[in-house]
Target: Transglycosylase domain-containing protein
Amino acid sequence: MSEHRRKQQSTPGSTPPGARRGPQQAPPGRQGTPPPRRTAAPQGSRSQGFSSEPRPAPSEPRPTRAEMRRSAQGKGGGGRRATGSGPAGPAGPRPKRFLDYPRWGKNGVRRWIPSFKQILSGALIMFAAVVGFVGYAYATTAVPKVNPSSEQQNNVFYWADGTVMTKTGSVNRQIVHIQDVPKVVQEDFMAAEDESFETNSGIDPMSILRAVKNMATGGDIQSGSTITQQWVKNSVLANTQQTLSRKFKEIIISAKIGRGYYSKPQVMEGYLNSNYYGRGANGIEAAAQAYYGVHASQLTLAQGAFIAATVNQPSYYQDISTDKGVQAAALARWNYVLNRMVANNWMTAADRAKLTPDKFPMPKPWIRNATLTGQIGYLVDTATNYVEQHSTPKVTDSDFAAGGFQVYTTFKKSDVTALAAAVDKVTKEHIDPKKRPNYDSFFQTGAASIDPGSGAIVSLYGGPGQDKGHDINNANSAGVPVGSTFKPVDMATALEKGAILTPGSDVRSPITPDSKFNGNNLITIRNQAGQLLTNPNGSLFHQRNDNNNMPGFITLRTAMNNSVNTPYVQLGEDVGYANVKAMAVSLGLGFDPNALSGDTAGFFIGTSTPSAIRMANVYATLDNGGTFHEPYSVTKVVRTGTDLTSPVLAKPTSTPVMSPSTANTINSMLQDVVKYGTATAAQAIGRPAAGKTGTTDDYKSAWFIGYTPQLATAVAMFREDPKHPGMMSMVGTGTGQKTTFYGGALPTEVWTDYMSDALKGQSVMNFPPAPSLPKGANESGAPTPTPTPTNTVTATTAPPTTAPPTATSTPSNPFPTSTQSCLGVGGIFCPPDPSSTATDTSGASPTPSRSKKGQGSSSGGTGFLG
Model:
């Protein structure tokens, strides 16, 4: 110590200064230990000041540092806690509990926070429970069979020769085996969806984690599900609902499959066939066709990379051929797949370098009805409708939508191709909507061809194609007036039933092709009661002819050859509407209730609107000797291996509707139409043929229906704007000039071109000879012909106010001399006589009524329909 500091002396026995004070709190020191006491050093000691003498032992055990610290903080055994008061509960020993929770000895929030040991124990228990639950689920879950809906395929339609025509249905899928898919294409899918497919056990936790990471960081999107899981979802569970239970079951089943329940090739095959790829394509085969028009076996690595890219967003990529934004996204995804191919050693970097963006395999444009192009769509519709209408129990649209049907049709591929080619050729040569929009726009054709011996529909032409926006099948839809092609129905009825030629009489007189009726233009028409037909306004109805070169009383054969209307309108009235309609119904024209027009004068010359198929079958019945066959387009139906033809599909009906004598008589009349009449252009076929032309009011439709002993074909042409229903006049169509449009022109040209191809290689056959008929009766006022050795008949008419013209009819040349310049191939274009446009005294174009009841005719008061 310094000498300047005073040293306090204490004598023995004296009290230290600090002892006089009361108990002092120890100043804070290190760890709360009080500093050493200050005492006087004994005399003689070397040092003075603080003494190192220890404190005397306390009367109680000295507390530990931890107790002192808790005491200072007001916790533990000190303070209020030591007295047993406070929120922590009573003092005393730790209670014995299996789970120390809430924790003993803790206060506040800490009482409710589990200790590390508790957390670890809980985690272990939870893990054990999950393992046990998963193990139980794995042991008790069975792998179900593949859902049939995931293997649903198209309906398959076959040509008459048994080859595949097309496949269609609600699910566009054709199952292919894994060996038919190139290995590089399989690797494309693994690169895009599951790189560890060949080695994983059906599930891949790392893939799931990687997918979550990429999604969180904005990286490339890759499915977290393995290929096995995706196949299970698509084909086994067939449940795409994003629920926890479904996902758990998917994982369990995938794990079982991955352990050998199915082989890897089986899983890959099922996966490729069950995916949806956009463009209505289910399965890799349908996708290859939809995007590239090839089979799956023909896909390249680059094409497979794009198709693999569509799996995650199939509907997004289907419009790639027209959408620039989709093209950019597809290119990025395509590059990603190719890069992963390199990363997995499925292709070399050198090969990858060759696949630059300009080598991107751009898919072909999307045609939504790609399998129903051209005439195929109409053929499928016709066959489908036939099955639905002739099956018991009914096969419905829903059944066809479910798929699995194999439909064997009567359509001959070569004939369908030839008919379409004939229509296209004539249309291309004569119709030009761009050059002549006012005349050639909205030009349409419908045609059908039938085997007369069976009623089988061998070909049809329904329009340019459903894939081109023309959905209506022109061959199988009613709505086009048939015109004079209906006259053979009048003639068949007259030959079978006779006619009432004496007004008010019930006596029916026999009718033959040589029976004569008035062929004058604008004549009045009487019904069987002798009443004159009138227009709705009460004025007399006058029937108009298009051909004014056949005046006076002419034979029904001559009227048929030259398509003269007035004789057949009067004949129809004399035979009776009910009888003619009954014949039309028996010939199949009553199949559609709206196809036959009402009881009017125009009915007998073609105001009815049956389909081309039905009209072709009418002539096929004549060709077949009067035996009617229900037209049919399907011979056999099989579904999932079961033949439905016998128990379900009704057999086509076959019924005689007229005598062979009647049929053969009309055949001879229609052969003359081709030899000498309005259809001479059909002679180009180079074999015996029969047929009838038909043209309607204002030239709104034109027909030619012709046949040989082997084949009957109907061709109809008309103009109609699909957006504005209603027939348009064809005056000037094909030429752009104000000329007529007859059935003997373009319809006959189509018929000739087609029949020449369809009958190529078949033997030339003749029709049965016409029977020898007894002398038939003539209309009242007609002169009786006098037979001559040359079989020439001269008829003289004597109208009340004019001198009678003379008409001569011979089998070799039945036309008057005055008409020779207008006959033959060019004669069908002869313009009508200006006087033919005359009307009755009312100056209007009235519609005739029957017995003044005002029932109108769609042909108009002076309609010619011939």
About this structure: The first helix runs from residue 65 to 73. The chain has a mean pLDDT of 79.
